[in-house]
Structures are given as C-alpha cells and as structure tokens.
Specification:
This protein is mostly helical and 428 residues long. Helices cover 62% and strands 2% of the residues. The strands form two sheets. Strands 1-2 form a two-stranded antiparallel ribbon. A two-stranded antiparallel sheet has the order 3-4. Strand 3 and strand 4 form a beta hairpin. The longest helix has 29 residues. It starts with a helix and ends in a 16-residue tail after the last helix. 24% of the residues are buried.
C-alpha cells in the first residue's frame, strides 16, 4: 500500500485540504471533534468530485450506447476473422475510428475518481496510525481520531483487532456491526444500479455479447465490494457508499429523462411525452424537442416504440416536425377558425350503395354521385333482337303457357329453366 500511496501522493494534499475546509464549516455546527463534522466533510468531498465528473459521465453514457449499437457489426467481424486475430483487431480499430467510438470512454468516471479514492484511503490510514499527512496537522489529527460514526472510529476497519480498536476509543462489536451494515449497503446499491441499467435502459431488440458482459458485472461488482470492503476504514466506506448512492440517483435521472432507444425506459418516456404533447399540443423544452427531432430524422429506421409514438400523434391530429416541434396536421388546420374552434367535422369517405339483384340485371341503377349512363349488363335484352322471337318460340310449343302448372312442376322437379338440351333418341 505504501507504493500505491506514493503513486497518488501528488493528490493527497489537495484532498486533505478540501476535507479540512469542509470540516471547518461543519465543525462550527456539530462540533469539531464529532463524527458528523468529519463524516459530512467526506460526503461533501464525494459530491464535489462527482459534480466535476459530470462531463465524463455524459461521455460514458454516449460511449456505452455507441458500443451497444456497434455490437452486431463487431460480432460479424469476429465471425469473419475468427482465425486471424491480427486482422480482427485491425478491423475493430477501423470500425471504432469510422464511428468515432472509444471503448475506454465507458470507464472514464471510475478511472478519474480512482486517484481521489486512494488519496482519501492514504489520509484515513494516516489518521489510524497517528501520522500527519497533507495539511492535517497534530491538532486536526487528534480531532479526527476522536470522531466516531455510530460508535465506530473514522479510521477503524472490520479486520482490526480489539486492541487496535480500543486505542481509538471504541468497541470491536460496534465497529464490526457498523462496517458490516455499510458494506451490505454499498454492495446492494452497486447491484441495484447495475440491475436497473440492464432491465430498463438496454436495447432489448439486440442480443449481443456486450449485454452478457454487463449482466456478469452486475453480480461480480457487488461481490468485489463485499470482499475488499472489510479492509476499508469507516471513512472510506462512507466515501464509497456516498458515491454509489450518487451514481444510482444520477442513473435514475438519465433513465427517466434520456433513455436508451429501444429500451423499456424509452417506451415509458415516449408514453409520458405523448400524453403531454396531446394535452398541450407542443413540446415543452429543448430536451423534448431533441428527442422528437431524433425520432423524425430516423425515418423508416424507427423502432417499435418510436413508430407507436408517431402514429399516436397522427391519430390525435398532430404532426412531428423535423426541427423537433409538434404542430397540428394540415387537415386539422384547414377546419379551424381563427379562435381555434372546429367549423365542420372531418369528411368521411362515402361508400356506394349496394345494388339489388334486379338492378344489376336490368342495369338501370347508377352509383351515387355518378351522372353518366351505365351500360346494361349481358343479362339484359339486346336492342337488335327481333321482336317476333318470343311468338316464334311460343308457336313451336303451344302447350307451354306462362303461369301454368306444367311449367311449375318442371321447375320443381329439378329441371333447369330456359331452353333444354335435346334428348338423345331412345331405342324403341
């Protein structure tokens, strides 16, 4: 640990100075020798560091989403060059360069706050051993050794012996109970943060190895925190628990307001956005305009939730514009007066009336709204047919009269109406 402390000694003095400045403020409220003054100083240090790391956190989100988008292409490259590792690496680097993606960007917040973590560990280790470090002099060192958080000294560890804890003025049972609770909370917050990322903010339409890696980390990280946490001082546990809670809250905010496309969080967000836009007829801020603009620009590449959002706006008489604004559709604008009240209902498409069988046979009926004459059907009589055709037919068969029982009986016996096929000559 001395080697690690020497590597991060350049930041030990700034970290100790920040803690002392916060301690001077909280000491006036809670007392300079209390655990509240020193504990809140560590919490304030975490908040200050995480605020400074917000730009890196934004880059981490963009890098993570870009990596999720590239997973199908990366899988194709791995399958194509599975026997040539060098060519595979070259194609991967070419893909990263073309898309402007850096795989290390997702680790920037963790890498950036690592120096602060080790510097704080070195400061608290100096307090435990009674060694002045940075701007912490003898007076501040004595005050810090008296500080207890729920009965556990600031520099005590779970693995410390009863003699080492008694030198700090505490009981070994209190130390182990407090540190165990903080380790459990630290691991649970890390697990929940990773779980909500996997269950809510991941594109479920793409199954890639990246998702399997993230799922594995969801269980690995909490175990790592539990194993290494027993060797952390109480002050470092306060630091790490605070940063985990901050990360969890920060991620919940991002998932709620800027979800990953294709995820369950995006479906919930677009549902809320659709409800607001249909009630007010417009988007309310630049973030919502940016979301709508991105959806419109995708065109046919929209996912299921984005298509549902656009179709919902259309059914409500609204249209999403390329600049991110939402306006009324042209058909709705034409039907409104200056005060916005509709003057006429939307015209419905008229269906033509269904013709009866007799009308279709005679060909006399006309479709609704059609003034042109319709040609007669093939079932109607031709004008060129001679007028004496019917009398001639009657003359050949004088016994068959219309309306007689003979014709009715033939119709009922299953014979077809009209001219019949001549019977074949029978043998006599």
């Amino acid at each position: 640990m001395d080697t690690i402390a020497s590597l991060f000694s350049f930041i030990t003095t700034p970290v100790s100075w920040v803690i002392v400045q916060f301690h001077s403020v909280y000491g006036k409220v809670f007392g300079p020798d209390t655990g509240w003054a020193w504990g809140l100083s560590i919490v304030s240090l975490v908040i200050l560091i995480r605020i400074c790391l917000i730009p890196l956190f934004v880059k981490q989100i963009k890098a993570t989403r870009a990596m999720q988008t590239l997973q199908p292409e990366m899988k194709k490259i791995q399958e194509r060059y599975k026997n040539d590792k060098q060519r595979q690496s070259e194609e991967m680097m070419k893909l990263y360069k073309e898309t402007g993606t850096n795989p290390l960007s997702s680790c920037l917040p963790i890498l950036a706050q690592s120096p602060f973590f080790f510097a704080l560990y070195h400061v608290l280790n100096g307090i435990a051993t009674g060694t002045t470090i940075g701007v912490i002099d003898e007076q501040l060192l004595a005050s810090a050794r008296k500080a207890h958080i729920f009965g556990a000294p600031l520099a005590a560890k779970f693995t410390d012996s009863a003699a080492a804890v008694s030198q700090l003025g505490a009981d070994i049972t209190n130390v182990r109970v407090v540190t165990a609770i903080m380790i459990v909370l630290m691991s649970a917050s890390q697990f929940y943060t990773q779980r909500q990322l996997m269950t809510k903010n991941v594109d479920t339409t793409v199954k890639t190895p990246f998702m399997q890696q993230q799922k594995m980390l969801m269980y690995v990280f909490p175990v790592m925190f539990a194993v290494f946490g027993i060797n952390f001082p109480v002050g470092v546990l306060v630091y790490w628990l605070t940063t985990n809670v901050w990360t969890m809250g920060q991620q919940m905010y991002v998932i709620h307001n800027n979800p990953t496309p294709g995820s369950k969080a995006q479906a919930a967000y677009l549902e809320r956005l659709h409800k607001h836009v249909t009630n007010h007829g417009k988007t309310r801020n630049r973030r919502e305009k940016a979301i709508v603009k991105a959806i419109v620009s995708k065109g046919r590449d929209r996912n299921e939730f984005e298509r549902k959002f656009i179709n919902g706006l259309s059914k409500a008489g609204l249209a999403a514009q390329a600049d991110g604004n939402v306006t009324m559709a042209e058909s709705q604008v034409a039907l409104q007066t200056e005060d916005g009240v509709s003057t006429a209902p939307v015209a419905k498409r008229q269906q033509p009336k269904r013709q009866t069988k007799a009308q279709r046979q005679t060909g006399t009926a006309k479709p609704a709204g059609d003034e042109t004459e319709q040609p007669t059907t093939s079932l109607s009589k031709s004008e060129d047919e001679p007028q004496d055709a019917k009398p001639a037919a009657a003359a050949k068969n004088p016994a068959a009269k219309p309306g007689t029982g003979n014709s009715r009986s033939r119709a009922q016996s299953g014979q077809r109406k009209g001219p019949q096929r001549p019977k074949s000559p029978s043998k006599k």
